[in-house]
Amino acid sequence: MTMSPSPIEIYDTTLRDGSQAEDVSFSVEDKIRIAHKLDELGVHFIEGGWPGANPKDIEFFQVIKSTPLQRARVVAFGSTRKAKNTAESDPTLKALLSAETEIVTIFGKSWTLHVTEALETTLEKNAELIGDSIAFLTRHGRRVFYDAEHFFDGYKTDPAYALQTIHMAAKAGAERIILCDTNGGTMPWEVKDIFLKVKAECSVPLGIHAHNDSEMGVANSLVAVQAGAVQVQGTINGIGERCGNANLCSIIANLELKMGYSALGDGRLAHLRTLSHFVAEMANLPPNKRQPYVGDAAFAHKGGVHIHAVQKNPITYEHVSPEVVGNVRRVLISESSGRSAVFGKMETLGMNLPQDNPKVQELLASLKSLEYEGYQFEGAEGSFELLVRKAMGTHSPSFELLGCRIIVEKRRTNEDPISEATIMVKVGDVVEHTAAVGHGPVNALDNALRKALEGFYPQLRDMKLLDYKVRVLTGRNGTGSRVRVLIESGDLKDKWGTVGVSENIIEASWQALVDSIEFKLMRDKG
Questions:
Q1: 101-132 burial, b for 16+ CB within 10 Å, e for fewer?
Q2: 399-456 maps to which CATH number?
Q3: Are 210 and 181 in contact, with CB atoms under 8 Å apart?
Q4: CATH 3.30.160 occupies which residues in the chain?
Q5: How far apart are CA 89 and CA 91, in angstroms?
Q6: 247 vs 34, 236, 312, 485, CA distance in Å?
Q7: How far apart are CA 29 and CA 176, in angstroms?
Q8: Which alpha helices (DSSP H) does 70-187 contain, by range?
Q9: Residue 313 · residue 337 · CB < 8 Å
């Protein structure tokens, strides 16, 4: 594939626009760590926030000076001056200068509706605000990018005025003019048509800033590049206000793998998945497993026909190689799986058996029977590996349960219940009898089991329960319905999922807990 000689500039606004997403709040330390990860990925510009808007953003610009980036340039963001202020006296413009960034991005109004109703000023005054603000910043040695807010809506309402505002920005010294689909409602064919018309009349290089309110953020960004945009703005994982911003993970991958442009260069695309998950972790959001390119399910195959074909030739059901974006191919084991799926999964476990081995067919029948009962092995690959090794006769339990008892006692109405678990297990010829309390019966059981086993297996101290999910499989029997418990566990090196199913939630939890510990001990044995 021939790369474009002029790379597309990637402008990340995760730390500013992304932080405006519902349920997202970055600390200053979070923002610093994300900035360095973005720098490692190879983005060109990182919008750090709005200096002066809040103490957190002020501190970020102070701290980032002492931890300089290698490649990316940090950008301060703000608005044009207020109509009642001069540029020299405007607090927003002063704060932008105080951030001491080489580049400043300011936004102004392109839509007559916003000028008259939001700013409550005249069209002439708004154009003056744009020109004055940019000229003030350039006089003070700043490079200026101008975000033409609501540009596409403004152009559709009054194209002459929308063009007048960006001509004013260009005349005042803006180095980039970014056309913004701020409400996220413009369609790709509209973006392309308007972009081409603006490009024909504007000598300053253009960029695109798209929101995702109509699920067009990525598409609108890509057609803008086709129409001549040299800069694309967006956020990692598409987080942002309302429905989010254009997703840079998809945009960058599409630019490099589908459109022949250079965006990051130097093989950095292989770090895309890692960054996606890092930002999700910093935002305290679960990674979107169905996110294109970087999600856990992006290269996961469940149907038997699909799996059989992918094992012969991956391009039958994969549009790119998962390794290119730092992802991996996954074979999901379920009631949809066939013989080839089981063989493929066993090969990843280092178990190469002849195709005619009768144990494989027995395993497949057992698997489908268990899934019919409510077991789910897609998110419980630890339990699946144990199931395979038990069926093949290559696994022996590390301990044996001799009995357990769980007591939940509530003494007063306004006090939390007290949960205590007593357990008796046998390891070799030694019987261990112990008890523990916990925050709920399952946590108490987990604590008691670990307490009983850690003397024999000290490596369990490194193991943690990361996630616990309960799903009622059918509500026909009310509180006596069958439930499925999925547990995610991890240690210093890896993480894995296990599953249990029963009408009794404690029994289902026990099954999943035992599998999680057995899997850890089996892996440690090698």
A1: bebbbbbbbbbbebbeeebebeeeebbbbbbb
A2: 3.30.160
A3: yes
A4: 399-456
A5: 6
A6: 16, 6, 32, 33
A7: 30
A8: 91-98, 112-113, 123-139, 151-157, 159-172
A9: no
Contact (Cβ atoms closer than 8 angstroms) between residue 503 and residue 480: yes
- List pLDDT tens digits, range 51-85: 988 899 999 999 999 988 999 999 999 999 999 99
**Per-residue model confidence as pLDDT tens digits over 6-57:** 789 999 999 999 999 999 999 999 999 999 999 999 999 999 999 988 899 9
**Domain(s) of CATH 3.20.20.70: residues in the chain:** 9-282
9-282 CATH choice from 3.40.50.2300, 3.20.20.70, 3.30.420.10, 2.40.50.100: 3.20.20.70
The pair phi, psi for residue 226, each rounded to 5°, is: -60, -35
> Which pTM does this prediction carry?
0.75
Structure tokens at 355: 């195709």
Q: Are 129 and 118 in contact (CB under 8 A)?
A: no
Angle in degrees, CA 435, 437, 442, rounded to 5: 100
Three-class SS state of 78: strand
Q: What pLDDT, in 10s, does the model give residues 438-484?
A: 999 999 999 999 999 999 999 999 998 888 888 888 655 565 678 98
